[in-house]
Amino acid sequence: MELRFQPALLQEVIDSFVEKTEREGDPTYYKEFHELADPIYEKFTLDDRESEFKKLYQYLFGIWGFSDIIRDAFNEYPLLKERVGIVLVKGVLKEDQEGVDVLRKWGSVEHEMARE
User: Fold this and answer.
1) Is the pTM of this model over 0.85?
2) Tens digits of pLDDT across the chain (116 residues)
C-alpha cells in the first residue's frame, strides 16, 4: 500500500503545528523549521523555491510522525492494507467535503470476479 499526501495538506499541518507549539511555549519545532526553511530563501531562486518547500514539508511531515498516524491506522487492519493500492490523503475545507475513494490493487478478488 502506498500513502500519498496532498502537498497543500502537508503545508497546512506543518505550519499549524509549528504555530501551535510555539504559541504554547515550545519553540523546538519553530526553530527546526526555520533552520531548514531559511536556507531555501538564500540558496534557491524564486522559481525553484516551491519545489524545495514541498520537499521540506514532506520531510517534516514524515520525521515529526504525522504520516505514521495514517500508516498506523492501516496497520491495525492488515487485510485492508493488503488490498488497498494507493491512499491519497487530502485536506478539505468543510466536513461535507470529506470522503473516501478506495483504489484497490488488482488481485485475487478481481481475478475471481472476472472468472465468474
Assistant:
1) no
2) 888 999 999 999 999 999 999 999 999 999 999 999 999 999 999 999 999 999 999 999 999 999 999 899 889 988 888 888 888 888 876 677 666 665 555 555 555 555 55
Strands (E), the chain: 2-5, 84-89, 103-104
**Residue 8 near residue 51, CB atoms below 8 Å:** no
Please tell me the number of Cα atoms within 13 Å of 26 on its side-chain side: 8
CA distance 60 to 29: 10
3-state secondary structure of 86: strand
Is residue 16 within 8 Å of 64, Cβ to Cβ?
no
How far apart, in whole angstroms, are the C-alpha atoms of residue 89 and residue 87?
A: 6
